[in-house]
User: Which sequence fits this backbone?
Protein backbone atom coordinates (compact mmCIF):
# COMPACT_ATOMS: atom_id res chain seq x y z
CA UNK A 1 0.00 0.00 0.00
CA UNK A 2 2.71 2.40 1.05
CA UNK A 3 4.66 1.48 -2.03
CA UNK A 4 1.65 2.29 -4.22
CA UNK A 5 1.29 5.73 -2.65
CA UNK A 6 4.97 6.35 -3.12
CA UNK A 7 4.74 5.31 -6.77
CA UNK A 8 1.72 7.58 -7.25
CA UNK A 9 3.54 10.55 -5.75
CA UNK A 10 6.51 9.85 -7.96
CA UNK A 11 4.24 9.70 -10.99
CA UNK A 12 2.67 13.05 -10.03
CA UNK A 13 6.08 14.62 -9.54
CA UNK A 14 7.04 13.48 -13.01
CA UNK A 15 3.80 14.54 -14.72
CA UNK A 16 3.05 17.88 -13.06
CA UNK A 17 6.16 19.83 -13.98
CA UNK A 18 5.44 18.93 -17.60
CA UNK A 19 1.93 20.39 -17.64
CA UNK A 20 2.86 24.09 -17.53
CA UNK A 21 5.38 23.43 -20.31
CA UNK A 22 2.53 22.31 -22.59
CA UNK A 23 0.96 25.77 -22.37
CA UNK A 24 4.14 27.57 -23.34
CA UNK A 25 4.83 28.32 -26.97
CA UNK A 26 7.48 26.11 -28.52
CA UNK A 27 9.49 27.49 -31.44
CA UNK A 28 10.06 24.89 -34.20
CA UNK A 29 13.69 24.82 -35.32
CA UNK A 30 16.26 27.58 -35.18
CA UNK A 31 16.01 30.69 -37.35
CA UNK A 32 18.98 31.52 -39.59
CA UNK A 33 18.92 35.05 -38.16
CA UNK A 34 17.29 35.92 -34.81
CA UNK A 35 13.67 37.10 -34.88
CA UNK A 36 12.48 39.68 -32.39
CA UNK A 37 8.81 39.29 -31.46
CA UNK A 38 6.87 42.49 -32.20
CA UNK A 39 4.72 42.48 -29.04
CA UNK A 40 2.24 44.58 -31.00
CA UNK A 41 -1.33 44.49 -29.63
CA UNK A 42 -3.60 42.40 -31.85
CA UNK A 43 -6.04 45.32 -32.17
CA UNK A 44 -3.31 47.33 -33.92
CA UNK A 45 -3.43 44.95 -36.92
CA UNK A 46 -7.07 45.83 -37.63
CA UNK A 47 -7.18 47.70 -40.92
CA UNK A 48 -3.73 46.39 -41.91
CA UNK A 49 -5.14 42.97 -42.81
CA UNK A 50 -8.55 42.10 -44.30
CA UNK A 51 -11.41 41.60 -41.79
CA UNK A 52 -11.45 37.89 -42.71
CA UNK A 53 -7.70 37.55 -42.15
CA UNK A 54 -8.01 39.42 -38.83
CA UNK A 55 -10.55 36.89 -37.56
CA UNK A 56 -8.19 34.01 -38.37
CA UNK A 57 -4.93 35.63 -37.30
CA UNK A 58 -6.03 37.32 -34.11
CA UNK A 59 -9.31 35.67 -33.12
CA UNK A 60 -8.15 32.14 -34.03
CA UNK A 61 -11.02 31.39 -36.43
CA UNK A 62 -10.66 28.77 -39.17
CA UNK A 63 -11.60 29.43 -42.81
CA UNK A 64 -13.95 27.10 -44.65
CA UNK A 65 -12.10 24.41 -46.64
CA UNK A 66 -11.56 25.19 -50.34
CA UNK A 67 -12.10 28.89 -49.60
CA UNK A 68 -8.56 30.06 -50.34
CA UNK A 69 -6.89 30.25 -53.76
CA UNK A 70 -3.63 29.25 -52.09
CA UNK A 71 -4.89 25.66 -51.80
CA UNK A 72 -4.11 25.34 -55.52
CA UNK A 73 -1.03 27.57 -55.63
CA UNK A 74 1.68 25.37 -57.11
CA UNK A 75 4.27 27.88 -58.32
CA UNK A 76 7.71 28.13 -56.75
CA UNK A 77 7.94 30.81 -54.10
CA UNK A 78 7.42 31.67 -50.46
CA UNK A 79 4.34 31.83 -48.25
CA UNK A 80 4.56 34.76 -45.85
CA UNK A 81 2.48 35.82 -42.82
CA UNK A 82 -0.41 38.01 -44.04
CA UNK A 83 0.10 40.37 -41.09
CA UNK A 84 3.84 40.97 -40.55
CA UNK A 85 5.14 39.41 -43.83
CA UNK A 86 7.58 37.02 -42.11
CA UNK A 87 8.27 34.08 -44.49
CA UNK A 88 6.66 30.97 -42.95
CA UNK A 89 6.75 28.22 -45.59
CA UNK A 90 8.68 27.51 -48.79
CA UNK A 91 6.75 26.16 -51.77
CA UNK A 92 9.06 23.10 -51.73
CA UNK A 93 7.34 22.04 -48.47
CA UNK A 94 3.80 22.36 -49.90
CA UNK A 95 1.86 19.24 -50.79
CA UNK A 96 -1.70 18.26 -51.72
CA UNK A 97 -3.37 16.86 -48.61
CA UNK A 98 -6.88 16.86 -50.16
CA UNK A 99 -8.23 18.62 -47.07
CA UNK A 100 -9.11 21.90 -48.80
CA UNK A 101 -6.47 23.83 -46.83
CA UNK A 102 -2.93 24.68 -47.96
CA UNK A 103 -0.74 22.01 -46.35
CA UNK A 104 2.97 21.84 -45.75
CA UNK A 105 5.41 19.18 -44.55
CA UNK A 106 7.48 21.66 -42.49
CA UNK A 107 7.72 25.37 -41.68
CA UNK A 108 10.76 27.61 -42.19
CA UNK A 109 13.00 26.85 -39.18
CA UNK A 110 12.48 29.21 -36.26
CA UNK A 111 9.60 31.15 -37.85
CA UNK A 112 6.70 29.19 -36.34
CA UNK A 113 5.84 28.32 -32.74
CA UNK A 114 3.30 25.77 -31.52
CA UNK A 115 0.92 25.77 -28.55
CA UNK A 116 -1.75 23.35 -27.34
CA UNK A 117 -5.29 24.41 -28.22
CA UNK A 118 -8.12 23.15 -26.00
CA UNK A 119 -11.03 24.52 -28.06
CA UNK A 120 -12.09 21.03 -29.16
CA UNK A 121 -12.55 18.15 -26.70
CA UNK A 122 -9.30 16.59 -27.84
CA UNK A 123 -6.37 19.03 -27.57
CA UNK A 124 -4.84 20.05 -30.89
CA UNK A 125 -1.54 21.75 -31.61
CA UNK A 126 -2.09 25.29 -32.84
CA UNK A 127 0.74 27.24 -34.43
CA UNK A 128 1.46 30.87 -35.03
CA UNK A 129 3.96 33.29 -36.54
CA UNK A 130 6.79 33.87 -34.03
CA UNK A 131 7.07 37.55 -34.95
CA UNK A 132 3.49 38.92 -34.73
CA UNK A 133 1.86 35.99 -32.92
CA UNK A 134 -0.78 35.66 -35.67
CA UNK A 135 -2.56 32.29 -35.61
CA UNK A 136 -1.91 30.31 -38.81
CA UNK A 137 -3.32 26.81 -38.38
CA UNK A 138 -2.89 23.42 -36.72
CA UNK A 139 -0.25 20.72 -37.09
CA UNK A 140 -1.16 17.02 -37.25
CA UNK A 141 0.96 13.87 -37.33
CA UNK A 142 -0.63 12.29 -40.44
CA UNK A 143 1.62 13.97 -43.01
CA UNK A 144 3.96 12.37 -45.55
CA UNK A 145 7.41 10.95 -44.68
CA UNK A 146 10.06 11.62 -43.54
CA UNK A 147 8.71 13.99 -40.86
CA UNK A 148 5.10 12.74 -40.93
CA UNK A 149 3.82 16.26 -40.22
CA UNK A 150 0.86 18.04 -41.81
CA UNK A 151 0.96 21.79 -41.24
CA UNK A 152 -2.62 22.66 -42.09
CA UNK A 153 -2.76 26.39 -42.75
CA UNK A 154 -5.49 28.94 -43.31
CA UNK A 155 -4.78 30.35 -46.79
CA UNK A 156 -6.22 33.71 -45.70
CA UNK A 157 -3.51 34.03 -43.04
CA UNK A 158 -0.79 33.77 -45.72
CA UNK A 159 0.30 35.68 -48.81
CA UNK A 160 2.20 34.03 -51.65
CA UNK A 161 5.28 35.64 -53.19
CA UNK A 162 6.43 33.97 -56.45
CA UNK A 163 10.13 33.15 -56.72
CA UNK A 164 10.86 35.89 -59.28
CA UNK A 165 9.41 38.63 -57.07
CA UNK A 166 11.23 40.23 -54.15
CA UNK A 167 9.94 39.46 -50.66
CA UNK A 168 8.27 42.55 -49.15
CA UNK A 169 9.90 44.38 -46.23
CA UNK A 170 8.67 43.04 -42.88
CA UNK A 171 5.80 45.08 -41.39
CA UNK A 172 6.04 46.35 -37.82
ZN1 LIG B 1 3.43 37.42 -38.54
Assistant:
Amino acid sequence: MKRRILLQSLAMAVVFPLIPACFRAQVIGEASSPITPLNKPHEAWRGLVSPKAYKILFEEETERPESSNLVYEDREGTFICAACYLPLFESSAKYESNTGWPSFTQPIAGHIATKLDFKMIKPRTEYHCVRCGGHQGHVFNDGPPPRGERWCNNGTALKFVPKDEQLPTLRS
Summary: The radius of gyration is 18 Å. The CA atoms of residues 51 and 129 lie 18 Å apart. The longest helix spans residues 2-15.
